[in-house]
Amino acid sequence: MTFRTLTAMTMLLAATLPAMAQDDGYWKATSKTARSITGDIVLRGERLTINFTGFTIAQIRTLEAAEINTVFNTEATEPGGNLYRLNIPAEKTFLHRNTLCGTEPTQYMATYRTGKELQLAFFSGSAVPKMDPESLAKSTNLCGTYLFNK
User: Fold this and answer.
1) Segments making up each domain of the chain, as ranges
2) What number is the average pLDDT over the span 51-75?
3) Cα–Cα distance for residue pair 81/28, rounded to 1 Å
4) 107: which strand partners?
5) Which of the chain's termini has less CB crowding within 10 Å, N or C?
6) Average pLDDT, the chain
7) First-to-final CA distance of the chain
8) Nearest partner of 72 among 57, 86, 82, 60, judged by Cα
9) pTM assigned to the model
10) CB-count exposure of residue 67 (10 Å: 0-12, 13-18, 19+)
11) Residues 6+ apart with CB under 8 A from 129
């Protein structure tokens, strides 16, 4: 195998790795909300672990910069982060008997990572959340946002 072929194969493999890998790892709860509800979390492949309970997640798509700015109140200029589908029952409690979405099951999770900081947002409802300012202002599906650090 030539060096050129090996380089091309390496580049192809790197390009096909899922964007969700950027979220992978152990994340320490830093916001008050994260410390009181989820505690530290682990994202690994297609799995989210909260308080020693694992949940399967499936990446739907990459978030647009406008969506990131609306959900996480930040100033992203390029697409990034991910929207995931998951199913966390409404009855599932975490730290201090808190739930993620009150009496509704948690159906979606948005992530946005900058450096060693990860922000999460959880959504209820079966429809894919609309994350433009007008829709989000009218919606009751955003359950909360959480901040974590490496």
Assistant:
1) 19-149
2) 96
3) 18
4) none
5) N
6) 89
7) 39
8) 82
9) 0.85
10) buried
11) 83, 108, 110, 123, 136, 139, 141, 142
